[in-house]
Design goal:
The complex is a heterodimer of chains A (about 425) and B (about 300). With about 425 residues, chain A is an alpha+beta fold. Chain A folds into 2 domains: about 325 residues, no CATH class; about 70 residues, Beta-lactamase Inhibitory Protein, Chain:B, domain 1, CATH 3.30.1450. Chain A has 6 helices and 14 strands. In chain A, the strands form 2 sheets. In chain A, strands 1, 2, 3, 4, 5, 6, 7, 8, 9 and 10 form a 10-stranded antiparallel beta sheet that branches. Chain A has a 4-stranded antiparallel beta sheet with strand order 11-12-13-14. Chain A is elongated, with a radius of gyration of 26 Å. Chain B has about 300 residues and is of the alpha+beta class. Chain B has one domain. Helices cover about 20% and strands about 25% of the residues of chain B. Chain B has 6 helices and 13 strands. A 9-stranded antiparallel beta sheet of chain B has the order 4-3-2-1-13-12-11-6-5. Chain B has a two-stranded antiparallel ribbon with strand order 7-8. In chain B, strand 9 and strand 10 form a beta hairpin. The longest helix of chain B is centred in the N-terminal third of the chain and has 30 residues. The termini of chain B are far apart. Classes of the chains: A alpha+beta (about 425), B alpha+beta (about 300).
Chain lengths: ~425, ~300
């Protein structure tokens, strides 16, 4: 480990000691009072000043983390891990791999099940400069490391939003509004949490202003002159931020979020799905604890959703070797159009099948499971391509929008994708 | 390399002259409104009021905006009807004198034909319509404000520009010039000072990409009239303060694949002086979703 790492770790220890006395008396009250009881910690490091007297936080920071927002149930009562426990924990977050048979795993023996998996982003895409952190949850308050309870009304509202998105009479991909706003190339959540990659953040300051370039999508421009907020009717994805300095700590208060932000769960998101952000009042604190580390605290207050405020902390590590690249996301965003298009094709097919009273199984791709290679050739003709040592056959379809994959094992079809394709749609060669 | 430098020198002189004329005109026009007892400021007095950083370089911090019709047509145009009938006079083209020095963009013949074809198909092709990143110099004269963040602290000079339009922004390297690691929509920016001018050299623009099997490749346009450039674009921008609240902006545009010679646009930029002025979000990808993907949305009752 580098000297920088050691310095950081010792700074963390100092902070834990500093913070603990503040947290302990709070713990007893928190469960009953419902009031804001968390006391923000003070900076333990004084950064050099800019020529105009502000603490200089400029440079690139990153906040990679493996720590979950909420403390897992099995770790109830255990707020921190030992280094040995942390090392064990880290093993669970194994590197993303190529799908079996692809890239670095090209020569592996793959089962039909493995071949049918398309996989996710492989390890190439991930940043693994994890910032050292021994805690078991990002949430610091409530002291149990869990979201506070929701009001009954908010619970009903959340259930209704979730049902509309993923169940009931509404399919998952009815509209672009069924995708997280990151996928739509609009915005990430503010406050922002850990994500697999592109969490580098460039901080630039000028007299009266601080600006944060998040590598993905969002630029937060924060005036430091305590001017009034914009009109209540003007709503923004990242809200409207006002900042000031309390000693070496940057404090930012943000209001004017939009109710259009209702989807969580994606990378970097912090607010669960089904909670419109419009009523959230956010106070963030960037607390310097060493020359290369700040502790970022976000306190979220929304009495229309939670019975009390809650606070999470994410350590930020300075990394001037990190280069931010242009995140031209919308410019080549083909995923939403293609996903919706695929869903509409499936809708059409389902409607056609329903009109015909259902397709007999021997006329759909599902009926091919168990067939031999010779039987498939007799039925569908020659495949457009064969790969993975003959274990995957690919057929094109008449419309060209889909392909049919057949995965063989022991000379028989084991898996077909999709498994509901009409065989009339297969293009004969 | 000699050619752009020569043009750049011409540019300094031209910008200075243009700036003086504009200022003189502005002063003349406002003279009648000057409150009693105050004398309007002349150009030389405005020059002395340039805000400066402790380093002595001009302080460009603030929110700026172009006030012209360059984004409709760099070459200028008379007023025209809206290309969308429903928008009536709201969508009409405002008239403007143009910002191209010499009046005309020196296209190669094939490129002029393509520009005219672009104009005919602008409702399908203009990247602004699709909220694509505007590139340089278009970002400067889009009808939205942008903000400079500039400082010298702890021995490091930092320069960044954030545009209100979409997520457009630039970090400008003020240190030793560096090579672009990759091509980008907003280009790779190396900045330096020449006297009181911030000079930004911009290269490494993306190659047009095919976004969908059905659609045409997304091109880089300079305005809504279909003026365009290729990935060979090289821009030298100059921001020169004319006083506390005005900048002279010029962009020398070189693209040997499209034009017969380098050419230049120039215009003043105005400080947005409203109390508590700030950039607001204009996250326009959201405003294009129905246009781009509406045909694939589930229709009610189907």
């Amino acid at each position: 480990m580098s000297p920088r790492f050691l310095i950081t770790a010792s700074a963390l220890a100092i902070v834990i000691v500093t913070v603990s006395p503040a947290l302990v008396p709070v713990a007893g009250q928190a469960q009953t009072s419902g009031a804001a009881t968390w006391t923000p910690p003070k900076a333990t490091y004084s950064p050099p000043r800019t020529p105009w007297g502000d603490p200089d936080l400029q440079g690139v920071w990153d906040y990679q983390s493996r720590i979950p927002m909420q403390r897992p149930a099995q770790l109830k009562g255990k707020a921190t891990l030992t280094d040995a426990e942390l090392a064990e924990w880290a093993k669970a977050g194994s590197p993303n791999q190529d799908p079996c048979g692809v890239g670095t795993r090209e020569n592996e023996e793959c089962s039909p099940d493995e071949l049918a998996q398309v996989g996710a982003y492989n390890e190439f895409w991930n940043n693994r400069n994890i910032v050292k952190d021994n805690r078991t949850s990002l949430i610091e308050d409530p002291p149990d490391g869990r979201f506070p309870s929701m009001t009954p009304e908010a619970g009903k509202r959340q259930a209704a939003i979730q049902a509309a998105r993923s169940g009931g009479d509404r399919a998952r991909y009815d509209s672009w509004e069924d995708f997280p706003t990151v996928t739509r190339c609009i915005a990430e959540h503010t406050p922002n949490g850990p994500q697999g990659y592109n969490s580098g953040t460039l901080v630039t300051q000028s007299p009266g202003w601080i600006v944060m370039f998040r590598e993905r999508l969002d630029t937060r421009i924060i005036p430091l002159d305590k001017r009034p907020h914009i009109g209540d009717h003007i709503r923004q994805w990242n809200g409207d931020s006002r900042g000031w300095w309390e000693g070496s700590t940057l404090v930012v208060e943000t209001t004017n979020f939009t109710d259009k932000q209702i989807i969580g769960g994606g990378a970097g998101s912090t607010i669960p799905t089904g909670i419109p952000l419009g009523n959230i009042h956010l106070v963030e604190r960037w607390v310097p604890v060493s020359a290369t580390r700040m502790h970022y605290y976000a306190t979220i207050t929304d009495p229309t959703t939670w019975t009390r405020p809650w606070t999470f902390m994410l350590p930020w590590q300075q990394d001037d070797t990190y280069t931010l690249y242009e995140f031209a996301c919308h410019e080549a965003n083909i995923s939403i159009g293609n996903s919706l298009r695929g869903q509409r094709l499936l809708d059409q097919k389902a409607a056609a099948d329903a009109a015909k009273g259902g397709q007999p199984i021997d006329r759909t791709s599902a009926g091919l499971v168990g067939a031999t290679e010779a039987a498939i050739r007799a039925r569908l003709g020659e495949p457009a391509s064969v790969d993975f040592n003959g274990s995957r056959w690919t057929y094109e379809t008449v419309g060209g929008a889909l392909v049919l994959h057949l995965f063989f094992a022991e000379s028989q079809v084991k898996i077909v994708t999709p498994n509901d394709l009409s065989l009339e749609a297969v293009r004969r060669r | 390399m000699g050619t752009p430098f020569r043009y750049a020198l011409v540019g300094v002189a031209t910008a200075a002259v243009v700036g003086m004329i504009l200022l003189a005109a502005a002063v003349t026009q406002t003279a009648g409104q000057t409150p009693a007892g105050q004398t309007p400021l002349g150009p030389s007095q405005l020059q002395t009021q340039i805000r400066r950083l402790p380093s002595g370089k001009p302080d460009l911090n603030g929110i700026w905006q172009a006030l012209n019709t360059a984004n409709w047509d760099l070459e200028g145009q008379g007023g025209g009807p809206s290309p969308v009938l429903a928008l009536g006079a709201i969508g009409a083209t405002p008239p403007g004198l143009g910002v191209v020095e010499g009046g005309k963009i020196p296209y190669q013949p094939w490129a002029l034909a393509k520009k005219q074809e672009n104009y005919k198909n602008r409702l399908q092709l203009d990247p602004e319509l699709k909220c694509h990143l505007p590139g340089i110099p278009r970002a400067t004269y889009l009808p939205y404000p942008f903000q400079f963040f500039s400082s010298v602290s702890l021995g490091k000079e930092r320069m960044a520009i954030v545009y209100q339009y979409s997520y457009a922004r630039r970090e400008i390297n003020m240190g030793k010039p560096t090579e672009a690691p990759i091509d980008t929509w907003m280009g790779w920016a190396n900045g330096r000072w020449e006297g009181d001018s911030l000079v930004i050299d911009v290269t490494a623009f993306t190659t047009p990409i095919l976004l969908s099997p059905e659609g045409p490749p997304s091109e880089h346009w300079l305005d809504r009239a279909g003026n365009f450039h290729s990935d060979a674009l090289h821009v030298v921008e100059r921001f020169t303060p004319l006083g506390p609240n005005h900048l002279a902006y010029e962009a020398l545009i070189e693209d040997p694949k499209v034009f017969t010679r380098p050419w230049k646009v120039s215009m003043p930029l105005y400080r947005r002086l409203e109390k508590n002025m700030q950039l607001l979000e204009f996250k326009c990808p959201e405003y294009t979703e129905e246009l781009l993907w509406g045909q694939y949305r589930k229709q009610p009752g189907k």
